[in-house]
């Protein structure tokens, strides 16, 4: 089976340190002999961040707007083109600081309907001093957007630790914990964090392991750190949160055989409430042609389609803390039933 391309999304407010982290990841990938490709989204018409990245790394730019609003389809297309033309081992998307990550995830999963991708847990970089200032004012669009970016993340890098006092850092840690109790939080200067790098390397090794990396590496890291945490003196300004599962999850299922349409509809109708979005392309065993299905906020829709190029049978589920294994087991059962009939 064709290999799934791992896709990482870096979110975080303007100037928080995303490009700084991106450069470190690129270095790591190259040292491991892997070929990275980058999608950069800048609000301006010129990609200034891109200048900081190695010239030999394939890069696609989505300029002049925020991928999450104006160019969602653009993002999907760019992603597909990048995979087709460059065959990278890993893709990293650096979103503009003004983007809402949920919308970006939605754009990316469109592409996974026709290309094998392994979407990794979302990483958000937070500028400690900026967040502190906004938190003290408690208002404005920026404040709310930063909250959204924090809430969607599975991993939070509390960057620019050097620009706040240790008391402020503790206060911010508690704040992040309240806003997103599921994410692991790592304070850092210039995004340098041993734990985040270990997670990154670990998650690369887990690529292609359909869906599981969403739950695994953070847990491993946090388990390790629980032990370290206990050994830390009580005055330690930080603790790593016990993130047993990633926060916003995506489960992608590639079908090996056409399944029964009614059984599939029944499965969709019975999805847990925590799955708030699903979509896919399917061939059914009991109908002719292919269907695009969409599910949002408990309503589903099936539309007959005629893809212009080969597209796998696939379903993508997005939600918070849902049991991916349960959905996977149900889908495998449908496939088994189809084989038996
Ligand atoms: N003091 C301090 N400066 C940092 C730290 N991390 C990054 N910076 C600086 O902050 C500025 C912004 O960093 P970038 O990595 O470009 O941030 P970004 O999130 O990519 O910025 P946008 O693309 O504008 O959203 C740069 O001048 C960095 O050198 C840090 O931990 N401490």
TrEMBL record:
Residues 210-237 are annotated as: Disordered. InterPro entries: CobW-likC_sf (IPR036627), CobW-like_C (IPR011629), CobW/HypB/UreG_nucleotide-bd (IPR003495), P-loop_NTPase (IPR027417), Zinc-reg_GTPase_activator (IPR051316). The keyword RNA-binding does not apply. Coiled coil: none annotated. It catalyses: GTP + H2O = GDP + phosphate + H(+). Keywords: Chaperone, Hydrolase, Nucleotide-binding. The keyword Kinase does not apply. Residues 246-335 form the CobW C-terminal domain. Residues 217-228 have a biased composition (Basic and acidic residues). SUPFAM superfamilies: Hypothetical protein YjiA, C-terminal domain, P-loop containing nucleoside triphosphate hydrolases. PANTHER family: COBW DOMAIN-CONTAINING PROTEIN, COBW-RELATED. Belongs to the SIMIBI class G3E GTPase family. ZNG1 subfamily. This is GTP-binding protein. It comes from Paenibacillus lacisoli.
């Amino acid at each position: 089976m064709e290999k799934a391309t791992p896709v990482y999304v870096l979110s975080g407010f303007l100037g928080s340190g995303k490009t700084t982290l991106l450069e470190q990841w690129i270095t790591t990938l190259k040292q491991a002999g892997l070929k990275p490709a980058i999608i950069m989204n800048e609000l301006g018409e010129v990609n200034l961040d891109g200048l900081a990245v190695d010239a030999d790394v394939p890069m696609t730019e989505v300029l002049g707007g925020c991928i999450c609003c104006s160019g969602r389809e653009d993002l999907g297309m760019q992603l597909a083109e990048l995979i087709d033309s460059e065959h990278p081992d890993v893709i990293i998307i650096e979103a503009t600081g003004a983007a809402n990550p949920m919308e970006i995830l939605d754009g990316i999963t469109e592409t996974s309907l026709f290309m094998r991708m392994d979407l990794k847990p979302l990483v958000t970089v937070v500028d400690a001093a900026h967040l502190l200032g906004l938190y003290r004012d408690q208002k404005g669009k920026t404040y709310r957007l930063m909250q959204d970016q924090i809430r969607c993340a599975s991993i939070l890098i509390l960057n620019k630790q050097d620009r706040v006092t240790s008391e402020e850092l503790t206060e911010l840690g508690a704040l992040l914990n309240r806003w997103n109790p599921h994410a692991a939080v790592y304070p850092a200067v210039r995004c340098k964090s041993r734990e985040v790098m270990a997670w990154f390397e670990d998650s690369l090794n887990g690529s292609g392991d359909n869906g599981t990396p969403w739950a695994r590496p953070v847990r491993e890291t946090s388990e390790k750190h629980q032990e370290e945490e206990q050994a830390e003196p009580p005055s330690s300004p930080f603790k790593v949160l016990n993130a047993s599962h990633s926060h916003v999850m995506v489960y992608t299922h590639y079908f090996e055989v056409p399944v029964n349409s009614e059984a599939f509809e029944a499965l969709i109708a019975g999805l847990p409430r925590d799955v708030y979005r699903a979509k896919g392309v399917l061939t059914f065993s009991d109908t002719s042609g292919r269907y695009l299905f969409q599910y949002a906020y408990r309503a589903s829709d099936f539309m007959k389609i005629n893809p212009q190029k080969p597209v796998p049978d696939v379903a993508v589920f997005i939600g918070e803390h849902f049991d991916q294994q349960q959905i996977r087991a149900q889908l495998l059962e449908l496939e088994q039933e189809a084989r038996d009939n």
